[in-house]
Amino acid sequence: MRKAIAWAVMSFVAVALLGGCLPRFVPADDVEVSAALKEVLQQYQKRAELARELITLVQPVANRNDALVAAVMDAQADLDCIRTAPETMVDRVAFERFEISQRQLGDALSRLLVESGNDRRFHKAPRFRSLARQLGGVDRQIDVARQAYDEAVDRYNASLNVFPRDVEARILAVHERPEFGLAEGTTTRQPRTDFGSLRGSMRV
């Protein structure tokens, strides 16, 4: 009996949607998620610009750090090939590829900063120290933006399980949004690279 009622409700909603009698499913939280994602992408873009400045500074005299410079450039090139349009970032596979690539860039940048900071040609250079400070600030903003995005996604995903949204979501194949905090196959949040903490390891 309950199944029959459920199917009847779903059929009614489907007919109403197809007939244009109900508004298109757009949860209010979806707007919040989109805004939060935009902020995350903006902060990552700032880091990418600073990474290019760092490469421009250290590459001409990299010498023993050539491999670290190449790692940063490779990670950045991989990210440049990833589309970050809102409709693309809904896809879990594309989202995870973006997350992995950003993590690789962050790790490569942290290693390059530490090694370059131990080089006498850089560790007292005003431009290098300025870039290190800016990268530390951007990294903290990225962390804040990611957390805000994950919280917005939690609210959005929860809304998909509330009647009548759950019925409409199933009919329109609306799926849960992926999060930054949890990587595939894990139950704990991944650590984020903090460039600010790296400055303490530099001989300045």
Compact overview of the structure:
This protein is mainly α and 204 residues long. It is 68% helix and 0% strand.
Overview of this protein structure:
With 204 residues, this protein is an all-alpha fold. It has one domain (29-162, 179-201). The chain contains eight helices and no strands. Helix 2 (28-58) runs antiparallel to helix 3, helix 2 packs antiparallel against helix 6 (126-159) and helix 3 runs antiparallel to helix 5. The model is unreliable at 4-22 and 183-204 (pLDDT under 50).
Give short descriptive properties of this protein.
204 residues, mainly alpha, 8 helices, 68% helix, elongated, disordered C terminus
Which blocks of ≥5 consecutive residues have pLDDT under 50?
4-22, 183-204
Number of helical elements: 8
Distance between the termini: 74 Å
Query: Which percent bin holds the helix content?
Result: 55-70%
Overall pLDDT metric: 79
Structural class: mainly alpha
Helices and strands in order, then pairings?
Blueprint: H1 2-18, H2 28-58, H3 66-80, H4 86-89, H5 92-117, H6 126-159, H7 165-171, H8 195-198
Helix pairs in contact: 2-3, 2-6, 3-5
